[in-house]
Amino acid sequence: MKTRFLFPYWCKYLGVILFLVHLPVYVFRKELGFTDFSPTDTGLLSGSHIFFVLTTLLMLSGLVLFAFSEEKVEDEQIAQLRMDSLQWAVYLSYIVLIGCLAFTTAHQDIKDLVRMHVWVPLMLFIILFRWKMFRNSRYSKEDAV
Amino acid sequence: MKNTIRIERAFKDITQAQLAELVGVSRQTINTIESNRYVPSTILALKIARVFEKPVEEVFILEEGD
């Protein structure tokens, strides 16, 4: 099946690698010297920006590649499962965001919530889609027996 | 919509995996169509009917309420 706007299958593995690479950078940030960022240091090569690129952007790129890569055998049913999962992920993440914003008044908390919303829809989509794929293959295994 | 894919496969003596390969989908998709959990597109229905050398209405049958 010809698919539009999907990355090739191998990008799924690249996505996993990018996601995994961001974890040690985040965990060992002290050892790597990514602490005590100066508030005046705001350039592209500043410590805080490099840390942001190596953590948040790597994680996001990894999640996007993993979420929107083709499956090994791509067909219309998988495309439909993908669309259903995406729709539910957007619904759920906006329900969570609106619910959280309704009960938050502090300005900093609102900023954190909006920042969290950068990766929550993607994560929800990946979980829902993988779950639907798993359930689909389990049913067909049961039927085959 | 019900279908006679399972019977047609038995006549032709092909597995779900073989049919899936012939029409270019995954085995899971053939399985979900057979068990009426997924309604295929017109293109896929025509491809499946072509494998069995039958008109599409003989392989896919509309039910009351469809």
Highest-level CATH class of chain B: Mainly Alpha
How many extended strands of chain B?
Answer: 2
Find the structural class of chain A using helix and strand composition: mainly alpha
When the domains of chain A are counted, the total is 2
β content of chain A, as a range? under 5%
Low-confidence stretches of chain B: none
Structural account:
The complex is a heterodimer of chains A (145) and B (66). With 145 residues, chain A is mainly alpha-helical. Chain A folds into two domains: 1-71; 75-145. Chain A contains five helices and no strands. In chain A, helix 1 runs antiparallel to helix 2, helix 2 (47-67) runs parallel beside helix 5 (120-144) and helix 3 packs across helix 5 (120-144). Chain A is globular, with a radius of gyration of 19 Å. Chain A starts with 10 loop residues before the first helix and ends with a helix. The radius of gyration of chain B is 11 Å and the shape is globular. Chain B has one domain (2-61): 434 Repressor (Amino-terminal Domain) (Orthogonal Bundle). In chain B, helix 2 (16-23) packs across helix 3. Chain B has 66 residues and is mainly alpha-helical. Chain B is built from five helices and two strands, in the order E-H-H-H-H-H-E. The longest helix of chain B has 10 residues, at 42-51. Chain B has helices at 5-12, 16-23, 27-34, 42-51, 56-59; strands spanning 2-3, 60-61. A two-stranded antiparallel sheet of chain B has the order 1-2. Chains A and B meet through helix 3 and helix 5 of A and helix 3 of B.
